[in-house]
Write a structure and sequence with these properties.
five-stranded antiparallel beta sheet; 2 domains; Pemi-like Protein 1, Chain: D; Beta-Lactamase; 166 residues; two-stranded antiparallel ribbon; elongated
Length: 166
């Protein structure tokens, strides 16, 4: 573990303040969930993502279906792509974060470019928000070289249902 040199007192309600600099570096915002672990005599705080529970099964399903639907399928959390593949850990562009915040579905009418942190993808897109326990926790993104079909929409509904009910 890395020593930050920060020391904080616990108040009478058992609370501590995480310094702003650490919150900024770790991308922690007001309202974020933290998971608490105990390691010997240490308390470890980790940003919690409800999407972590669904990712392993999603990766299996996506890898088995991707070739059949001639698409690239990505699952995100609130900040980055979390499925294995060419865009793993790529940060979400602003327009996708906005779709997530607004809980909006998006289907591109024509081929377009989507810019991720280290890659530009060109194609037709179907983007669906993932809602768990009333929280917008991520997105399902299908990128393909041809227009989105009813079959693609059905597949996203199935995948969304599997992820949301984990």
């Amino acid at each position: 573990m890395k020593n930050t040199g920060v020391i904080r007192k616990i108040d009478e309600l058992g609370r501590i303040v995480i310094p702003k600099e650490l919150r900024k570096v770790l991308k922690l915002s007001s309202g974020d969930d933290l998971e608490i672990f105990v390691d010997g005599s240490s308390i470890v705080l980790q940003k919690y993502s409800a999407m972590d529970n669904a990712i392993e099964e999603s990766n299996k399903l996506i890898s088995s279906v991707e070739d059949l639907v001639d698409s690239c399928i990505y699952i995100t959390d609130q900040e980055k792509i979390i499925t294995k593949g060419d865009l793993e850990n790529a940060e979400l562009p602003y327009n996708l974060k906005e779709l997530l915040t607004e809980r909006k579905r998006y289907i591109s009418e024509s081929e377009e470019e989507m810019v991720f942190s280290y890659s530009i993808k060109r194609g037709y897109y179907l983007i669906e928000p993932i809602i768990q326990n009333s929280d917008a926790n991520g997105l399902i993104i299908i990128s393909k070289s041809s227009p989105v079909t009813k079959e693609d929409e059905f597949f996203v509904k199935v995948l969304k249902n599997i992820i949301e009910n984990k």
